[in-house]
Amino acid sequence: MSLWRESWRDSLIHERVFACYVLFTLIRLIYSAGFSSPHVLVYFGSLALMAGGVLLTRRYPSVWAWRGRLVIYPVLMNIMFVNLRWVSPLINDSKKDAILWQIDKWITGGSLSVMLEPLIAPPLTEFFSFCYMFFMVYLFLSIVVWLFSPTPIARIFYAGLFSLYGIGYFGYTLVPAVGPYAVYASEFTRPLSGYFMTNFLASIYPTGTNYTDIFPSLHCAITTYLLLFDMKWNRRRFWICLVPSVGLLFSTIYLRYHYFVDVLAGLAVAAAALFIAHAARLREERCSREKINRSCYHDNKLKVLP
Q1: Integer angstrom CA distances of residue 224 from 46, 205, 279
Q2: Residue 2 vs residues 8, 52, 194: alpha-carbon distances, Å
Q3: Domain boundaries defined on the chain
Q4: How far apart are the first and last CA of the chain?
Q5: Which DSSP string do the residues of the chain spell out, in sequence order?
Q6: How far apart, in Å, are the Cα atoms of 177 and each of 111, 184, 210?
Q7: What percent of the chain clears pLDDT 90, i.e. is strictly above it?
């Protein structure tokens, strides 16, 4: 038990948020399916891997040890996402699309996706499909670039991003939904016709979803977080990614993948993640001044955070 206490004491905020999500889902899974479910091993293994990352940097507080500890979370993020395809039906009795649809009607008087049908045109659909796909490029680039940045900045970025994922996955498991494009397809009277990007997105989307990844919209949450983080730390990339990122926010509704309430929730989660990143920056600055403990490794070349 002392090993787990030490790991928790020296963990960063995103590690605690993600661990809470994994533990919460594990408890629900055991309650619903019992210890015999093979998915239980995935969650126990994830907790052990996270604890191992903390212990690694306690023993070897180097830049490469820290990169190894941080890279655990992109790996777990993908494992958890895919695994929800099978775990969500075990811990939930139904999808919540009807609730989200009704909330949209309460907020806007109807579905924004239906209201946008008069604007449908192949060039616009193609543009929004490109923006929606741009998310994957932006996310991968950001995870890699910031991982190999000075260690304190990497920790700040990862603190916000993977706290965001932890909160978002809580939403996925508590409010599982598929999206209006599938559940309310009969409400739409005009097809979304486009060109190459539109057809490509339509062909891969069914294999890329876990059928529970709607609330909150992590496409909106993550893109907003990446963009605003870049506005502070990499202004050039901010301007390059601004137009497709803003287009992505609108694409979630236009392409009928999300409800409006999903987008609002996603923006709220992004705001929380940016607050967490700011808190992580304050911790880094205090750690640099006071040399709190061995786990606060800092690159020698980084003297002052910009």
Answers
A1: 27, 21, 18
A2: 10, 14, 58
A3: 2-290
A4: 40
A5: -HHHHHHHHT--HHHHHHHHHHHHHHHHHHHHH-TT-THHHHHHHHHHHHHHHHHHHHH--SHHHHHHHHHHHHHHHHHHHHHHHHHHHHH-SS--HHHHHHHHHHHHSS-HHHHTGGG--HHHHHHHHHHHHHHHHHHHHHHHHHHTS-HHHHHHHHHHHHHHHHHHHHHHHHS----HHHHTGGG--S----SHHHHHHHHHHHHH--S---SS-HHHHHHHHHHHHHHHH-HHHHHHHHHHHHHHHHHHHHTTSS-HHHHHHHHHHHHHHHHHHHHHHHHHHHHHHH---TT----TT--S--
A6: 16, 12, 10
A7: 81
Across 135-154, average pLDDT: 95
7, 49 in Cβ contact below 8 A?
Answer: no
User: Do residues 159 and 17 touch, judged by C-beta distance below 8 A?
Assistant: no
| 226 closest CA partner among 216, 240, 215 | 240
Give the per-residue pLDDT at 301: 40
- CA distances to 76, 169, 251 from 82, rounded to whole Å, are 10, 11, 23
Under a CB-based contact definition with an 8 Å cutoff, are residues 115 and 190 in contact?
A: no
**Residue 59: its pLDDT value, please?**
85
Model confidence pLDDT, tens digit, residues 172-221: 999 999 999 999 999 999 999 999 999 999 888 888 899 999 999 999 99
